[in-house]
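Title: Prediction job returns without error message
Component: structure pipeline
Severity: low
Priority: P3
Assignee: unassigned

Description:
Job completed but the reporter wants confirmation the result is attached to the right record. Sequence as submitted:
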Amino acid sequence: MRVCVVYDCLFPHTIGGGERWYRSLSERLAAEGHEVTYLTLRQWPRGSAPDAPAGVAVRAAGPRMALYTGARRRIGPPLVFGAGVLWHLLLHGRRYDVVHTASFPYFPLLAAGLLRRTRGYRLVVDWFELWSRAYWTAYLGRTGGRVGWAVQRHCVRLRQQAFCFARLTAGRLREEGVGGPVTVLEGMVAGLPVAQAPARAEPLVMFAGRHIPEKRVPALVPALARARERLPELRGAILGDGPQREAVLRLVDELGLADVVDVPGFVDAPRLHDTLRRALCLVLPSEREGYGMVVVEAAAAGTPSVVCAAPDNAAVELVEEGVNGTVAPDASPQALAAAIERVHAGGDGLRSATHDWYLRNAWRLSLEGSLDRVSAAYRGELA
């Protein structure tokens, strides 16, 4: 089959879960004999060649552009990329059997949906998230949120084969009247992490990820201060960077935790994995997660996780209460501190249970497992 993969980023020129997914997907499809074109924004210096996946033709559908302003995506690059995708498919759409695209940003998907019938290809859409109307309003305000939600709803109802990575997303797609079958993949971790025998936990509570508003990283600092009232030996490691890092550092100073909380920024993979393995628990206080990959990585290291219940947080699907971690009812200092204390009370038994949970679920949660299911859909001609 002739496949056009559409995503505005290309790993390793930009780094993230979506980038890794589409590079792995395009490599897998090419290895199975499909003719694959990867349509993206230019991220490599002009005059040089992109770091292309094996057997994949990379085509730029727009210039090199900064994608983010602070924590939010800029509106300009998706508009430019959407126009580039529209132009490419106007010229070349008839040569593709399948156009496989991310749902967000929506403009490339709208372009692909507009030309689906006239160009004769089948449309495949990966839904990493599906925001509720309430979240759209909170994110963009009443007017902007109404527009964003309406555009999203139109994209959902396009005729498509839908893939998603959480049961939360699948349920919302069906509720919104998705225009085709939905398959839940569940796995996004590249290369099955080797399950490690649990190490004896240090009194260390950690976070790893971008410091952006929806991850609510500052909430961990007062929670750690409160947990230290009962467990004074606790320390913290808050890894990563982003627009809320200054707020984290300010809270660390204000609460007198500078000697016990480390905020080093992004760290290399060996240090991240070493910290995960030594930590008492990973705390992910996000109000919105389309997946929660770091929870799987923590489980592979035998480390339980604390996540927060929230309407848009699919990471709770990765935590089995009392088995590989616990779910806090909210991100208040009291709730997070109580969750940390529950993990501490679980001791070595909880770490052993986390290790066993990972062994039982690793393949289901792996990138390879998801790619197998997508590959099977292609072999079945995406019926």
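Comment from assignee: result matches the submitted record. The two ends are 14 Å apart (CA to CA).
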